[in-house]
């Protein structure tokens, strides 16, 4: 006797709510079919449903996202880095307190007190015909960030070594909700062939028809809700094996919207607007922003970063500010609008000669024009780098690049062998944008503060009585 089992999932929505009503319409249709056919199914979210670049998620600290998942009758969710490290400890503790779905994240533990009631490692469910499915969730181990916020984050591999033998004994099918990224999913499939399905996310990869890696089916539905995922499993009750595994990611652009979901988003949007309308300062003049020039507001912003972190110098890219501010009242909603990025302040230790290399790289045209996607950045282009605490003399070349002539600090030449504490955005500690910053062995991240929290400080310090 054979049994058809269906798993539906979303991943990396990042609060792109425009696509959510279409996703819900699709899922509701599939649920109706499964109910009519008396087939077992479950709905999953694989993390980063929330993104604080969206006003709803910023104002409600992710609880609006949980409300939408509740309304859609999701069964399971795991935690993405946007849920895990852009909220402070108490905010994350309370995020899922009203969740009507189960939150599974086996490699996350509290180090301050007993774990939240909602946090589970694994869950075993049964189909209508008695097939046992064990589900485990894992999230990307941003160790430095989680530790600063009061959480212990464990290696996904150590966690699986602990759990997989037990799950294999108690279940017929093992499913992993992985907010780890494609490379990690492939390695897990290699090391743990007992896992039947990995529903993935984090690296925004799209596997339209899934991929088999040894015994494991890998699947993922891209990003921002442009696709919704489905996994089909055929379980043979005679041989006690999965005899068929299929995965699909369906585009939703031509699907009609679910009215109830659209109405819920409009209600949450208005609720968020009301919360973000609190006034911070009242400007007596407009403050302009230019991504390719150093402007007054950007200069004061970087000065605030240097002062707040007590660093020797600081730099931020002008593209961090998406827009300027008009004369009159400035609200928290305005600050969120012009600085939506979930990026944290960071201080790294660099030698003088490394600082010079950073300056040279940052003042090239390709760097300024680079349209960064991810690493916390939610802007358009990186733009010109703005420095405080040092003086940088340049000349513009015919190519549009700036040639660095001299770098001084307090009127004296930068000591190439001296260590300096340099404040910037955590974005530059990842990847290859500024290799010298990424390679620094001495990094200090400031959490839970986001850069826009310092922009609020900047406005109060420099423009409260303007």
UniProtKB/TrEMBL annotation:
Residues 286-427 form the 5'-Nucleotidase C-terminal domain. The keyword Nucleotide-binding applies. This is Bifunctional metallophosphatase/5'-nucleotidase. Pfam families: 5_nucleotid_C, Metallophos. It comes from Radiobacillus deserti. SUPFAM superfamilies: 5'-nucleotidase (syn. UDP-sugar hydrolase), C-terminal domain, Metallo-dependent phosphatases. One of its GO terms (biological process) is nucleotide catabolic process. InterPro entries: 5'-Nucleotdase_C, 5'-Nucleotdase_C_sf, 5_nucleotidase/apyrase, Calcineurin-like_PHP, Metallo-depent_PP-like, Pesterase_YunD. Belongs to the 5'-nucleotidase family. Residues 10-205 form the Calcineurin-like phosphoesterase domain. CDD domains: MPP_UshA_N_like. GO terms for cellular component: outer membrane-bounded periplasmic space. Keywords: Hydrolase, Nucleotide-binding, Signal. One of its GO terms (molecular function) is nucleotide binding.
């Amino acid at each position: 006797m054979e049994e058809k089992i269906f798993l539906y999932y979303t991943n990396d929505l990042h609060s792109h709510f425009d696509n959510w009503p279409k996703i819900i319409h699709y899922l509701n249709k599939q649920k109706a079919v499964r109910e009519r056919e008396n087939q077992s199914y479950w709905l999953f979210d694989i993390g980063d449903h929330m993104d604080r670049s969206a006003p709803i998620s910023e104002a409600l600290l992710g609880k609006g996202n949980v409300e939408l998942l509740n309304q859609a009758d999701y069964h399971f969710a795991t935690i993405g880095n946007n849920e895990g490290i852009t909220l402070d400890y108490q905010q994350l503790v309370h995020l899922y307190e009203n969740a009507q779905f189960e939150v599974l994240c086996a490699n996350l533990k509290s180090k301050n007190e007993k774990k939240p009631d909602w946090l589970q490692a694994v869950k075993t469910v049964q189909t209508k015909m008695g097939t046992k499915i064990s589900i485990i969730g894992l999230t990307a181990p941003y160790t430095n960030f989680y530790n600063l916020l009061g959480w212990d984050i464990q290696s996904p591999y150590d966690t699986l070594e602990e759990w997989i033998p037990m799950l294999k004994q108690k279940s017929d099918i093992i499913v992993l909700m992985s907010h780890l990224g494609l490379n990690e999913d492939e390695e897990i499939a290699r090391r743990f062939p007992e896992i039947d399905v990995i529903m993935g996310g984090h690296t925004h990869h799209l596997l339209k028809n899934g991929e088999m890696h040894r015994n494991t089916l890998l699947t993922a539905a891209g990003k921002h809700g442009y696709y919704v995922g489905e996994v089909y499993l055929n379980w043979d009750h005679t041989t006690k094996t999965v005899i068929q595994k299929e995965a699909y990611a369906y585009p939703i652009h031509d699907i009609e919207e679910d009215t109830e979901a659209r109405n819920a988003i409009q209600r949450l949007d208005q609720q968020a607007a009301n919360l973000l309308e609190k006034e911070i300062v009242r400007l007596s003049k407009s403050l302009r922003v230019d991504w390719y020039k150093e402007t007054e507001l950007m200069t004061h912003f970087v000065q605030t970063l240097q002062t707040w972190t007590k660093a020797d110098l600081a730099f931020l890219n002008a593209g961090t500010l998406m827009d300027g501010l008009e004369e009159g009242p400035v609200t928290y909603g305005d600050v969120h609008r012009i600085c939506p990025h979930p990026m944290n302040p960071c201080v790294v230790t660099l030698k003088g000669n490394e600082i010079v290399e950073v300056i040279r790289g940052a003042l090239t045209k390709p760097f300024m024009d680079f349209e960064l996607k991810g690493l916390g950045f939610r802007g358009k282009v990186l733009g010109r780098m703005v420095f405080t605490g040092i003086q940088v003399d340049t000349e513009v070349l015919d190519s549009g690049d700036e040639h660095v002539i001299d770098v001084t600090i307090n009127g004296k030449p930068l000591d190439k062998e001296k260590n300096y504490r340099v404040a910037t955005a955590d974005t530059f500690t990842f990847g290859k944008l500024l290799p010298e910053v990424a390679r620094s062995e001495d990094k200090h991240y400031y959490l839970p503060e986001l850069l826009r929290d310092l922009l609020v400080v900047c406005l109060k310090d420099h423009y409260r009585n303007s």
